[in-house]
Design goal:
The chain has 527 residues and is an alpha/beta fold. It is built from 18 helices and seven strands. The protein is globular, with a radius of gyration of 32 Å.
């Protein structure tokens, strides 16, 4: 309990004295241990109803492994929620280059509006969407050729088999003609779809033999129909085209017509939903006060989604969801906690501002504040470190020494500018410092190379300390993330128009560290 864990720190100095107990406490208060999450499998089971799962393809050809994993898992859940709520329109907030949006549109036939504040992302999404259409057409072409080749191989195999059977039958006919005629039996060659072979029969037909023949033929035709429809199901609706008719025997015409009718039905459905099976990338900055109807002119009952919405955008997504009656559900996975705005971080009062944290009334009443350092820690990936993906100690050391330099040499303790990913572009510590100073708009001529290296040598022996300190931050990271996610969940629990809300672990945390989704569905009576 709290009393036991508090002994990890010295009562007088408040310094950490028991690292093991500290780690146990962090694990105890992590989201995976608190038992507040809804298992993804249970949620999908509750949502599925009578609907059938879509025949899926893996988007590995046009996404990296991490993004492919995220998009596949989240899109299946989004489709299940959309089906449960009876909606076809999805709004993807912070859609970026449209990975999730385009997949929801093409794979699940949903009408998706992807909204991103960056015009370069929107332009990139348009270009990527154009390339994806080519991908789908190529995929369709490969699918048709594969099916045609497979059918031909099966037909050739049956042709050889039938020739052998036919030869055997003829020999039996010659040897047993009189016996066969007396019994009134029939020898019927096996019908082979798409090969134009004819049957050999006597005047009278044995009922059992005919029934067996029909059953065998229907079984093969049904399999062929399923293969055709399986390929059609994984294509976007607007990619459905006519399959050319093959030369069939009279005996298989009825079943072939059934296949063609199914294809025609799919085409008709595709034409009718031609306006719904679309993805629209849009550029707009989303805030809590955003009127979606000003951005989306044909706004209808829909759901909002966000895959790694950055900073305050995750909080604003939930606020828009609760405020707009058209939005029936939300599925939001946030990230970049360090960019959250905090109401109680600064002493200045801004009554009109909408803050990213806290959201729920309980933490507001407590005046709770995390602080930027804690929020930065919440972005760390404990699961990755646990499997051997160590922290970038050297880059962290460079950054720490740089901060000492700019404080002591330039007197700067706070800056609105950021160093960014300078480490990966630098050839040495000296190069790193000079590049960083230019980004911070500080005069690097004040520093000689020897002075820069003096700072490096002065603190080099403390690199192990820095690594140990950052490992403690990694251990604590899940606890801080818990606070932010539970704040969002509690905010939803406080709303009167929410039928259900929960936290769901969507992704493998090693592949995608920000793996928890905040999900909510509105009451059906809400309009």
């Amino acid at each position: 309990d709290d009393d036991i864990f508090s002994s990890a720190f010295c009562e007088n100095s408040e310094k950490l004295i028991n690292v093991h107990l500290f780690a146990l406490a962090a694990k105890y208060y992590s989201l995976s241990n608190l038992g507040v999450c809804t298992p993804l499998e249970d949620l999908l089971e509750a949502l599925k109803g009578d609907s059938e799962g879509a025949v899926g393809i893996k988007p590995d050809e046009f996404m990296n492994n991490k993004k492919s994993h995220e998009v596949q898992v989240m899109s299946e859940l989004v489709d299940s929620i959309a089906n449960y709520c009876g909606i076809k329109q999805v709004i993807d907030i912070g859609s970026g280059k449209g990975y999730l949006s385009s997949y929801l549109s093409m794979q699940y036939n949903l009408k998706v509006y992807g909204i991103d504040s960056s015009s370069s992302n929107t332009n990139g999404a348009h270009e990527r969407n154009r390339k994806l259409k080519k991908h789908w057409r190529a995929y369709q072409s490969r699918g048709k050729e594969s099916l045609k080749s497979q059918s031909l191989e099966e037909a050739n195999g049956r042709s050889v088999e039938n020739e052998i059977n036919c030869k055997t039958i003829n020999e039996e006919l010659l040897n047993n003609a009189n016996s066969l005629q007396n019994q009134g039996q029939v020898i019927i060659q096996d019908l082979v779809p798409s090969c134009g072979l004819t049957e050999v029969a006597t005047l009278e037909t044995n009922t059992e033999t005919e029934a067996g023949l029909v059953t065998g033929t229907q079984s093969h035709e049904t399999k062929s129909s399923e293969e055709v429809l399986a390929i059609l199901n994984i294509l976007p609706a607007d990619a459905v085209e006519d399959f050319s008719s093959s030369h069939c025997s009279c005996g298989e015409l009825c079943e072939e017509e059934n296949v063609q009718r199914k294809v025609t039905s799919l085409k008709t459905k595709a034409r009718r939903s031609s306006e719904s099976n679309l993805y629209f990338p849009l550029t707009s900055c989303i805030t809590a006060e955003t009127e979606l109807s000003d951005i989306i002119t044909d706004l209808e009952d829909c759901m909002m989604v966000g895959l790694h919405t950055c900073g305050d955008l995750a909080a604003n997504t939930l606020r828009i969801f609760t405020a707009k009656p058209e939005i029936k559900a939300v599925c939001s996975v946030g990230c970049c906690y360090h960019l959250l705005s905090e109401q109680f971080e600064n002493q200045e009062e801004c009554h009109d501002q909408v803050w990213g944290f806290p959201m729920c009334q309980y933490l507001k009443d407590k005046g709770w504040c995390c602080g930027r350092n804690a929020r930065m820690s919440a972005c760390l990936a404990l699961e990755r470190v646990a499997v051997g993906q160590m922290l970038p100690t050297e880059s962290l050391f460079y950054r720490a020494v740089l901060q000492v330099i700019i404080e002591e040499i330039y007197g700067v303790t706070k800056s609105d500018r950021h160093v960014g990913k300078t480490f990966s572009k630098s050839s040495s510590f000296i190069d790193y410092v000079r590049r960083s100073l230019k980004k911070l708009e500080l005069d690097d001529s004040k520093l000689q190379d020897s002075c820069i290296m003096d700072y490096y040598e002065k603190y080099k022996h403390r690199m192990n300390e820095l690594e140990a300190f950052n490992m403690l931050k990694v251990v604590l990271a899940p606890c801080i993330e818990v606070l932010i996610l539970l704040d969002r969940l509690c905010y939803l629990k406080e709303q009167e128009n929410i039928a259900w809300s929960g936290l769901v672990k969507l992704f493998d945390p090693v592949k995608s560290p920000r793996c928890y989704a905040v999900i909510a569905l509105k009451s059906q009576s809400c309009s």
